[in-house]
Specification:
Blueprint (H helix, E strand, L loop, with lengths): L1 H19 L9 H6 L2 H8 L3 H16 L5 H9 L14 H10 L3 H6 L9 H10 L1 H11 L4 H8 L9 H9 L1
Helix pairs in contact: 1-4, 1-6, 4-5, 4-11, 5-10, 9-10
């Protein structure tokens, strides 16, 4: 168990550093232009570069596994969009990930049921981290992505749901 926790911390530290230095080229964004509506493309760009790179990696891995479902691929590109636009600050991410692994009940307790403006800012960040799938799905609908794309984004943390393939790849990356 201790070895597993240490390997998780080591991997998440590498992941954080890698995402912090992510570089995205115009060519890298070809799937965004191909699979997302203009509103979805704008939504993708609200994510920080690290989340954009992660989403492109998830998209690419799904394609490598033979996925041809264009709506699942679009959902892969937007699955973390609920964290974008500063809703979940990048520097808070390692704490959130470790909290989910080591103390899984703490994040929902800190998040609370809704993002009240009366909550301290850090608790609103935790709310957005905990509810990013629902927020991203709502944002995708507002960006005129198909209903099914939004449903897949909403379900991307369910290992047995309609986005199980997305969950599996996302969880591994």
């Amino acid at each position: 168990m201790i070895r597993n926790i240490f390997s998780q911390i080591t991997y998440r530290t590498w992941q954080f550093t890698h995402r912090l230095t992510a570089k995205i080229t115009y060519e890298d964004l070809a799937p965004v232009r191909k699979y997302l509506t203009p509103g979805g493309q704008r939504l993708f760009l609200t994510m920080n570069r690290g989340d954009q790179q992660h989403s492109l990696n998830v998209f690419q891995k799904l394609q490598e596994q033979g996925c041809e479902d264009t709506e699942l691929l679009a959902a892969a590109l937007l699955h973390d969009s609920g964290k974008g636009a500063g809703r979940v600050p990048f520097l808070l991410r390692p704490a959130v990930v470790l909290m989910l692994k080591l103390l899984p009940g703490l994040l929902p307790a800190l998040a609370g049921p809704y993002p009240s403006k009366n909550l301290p800012l850090y608790r609103r960040y935790f709310y957005y981290a905990w509810r990013h799938a629902d927020i991203g799905a709502d944002l995708a609908l507002a960006a005129h992505e198909p209903d099914r794309v939004a449903a897949l984004i909403r379900a991307h943390h369910d290992p047995n749901g309609p986005a199980a393939a997305l969950h599996k790849v996302d969880d591994a990356l």
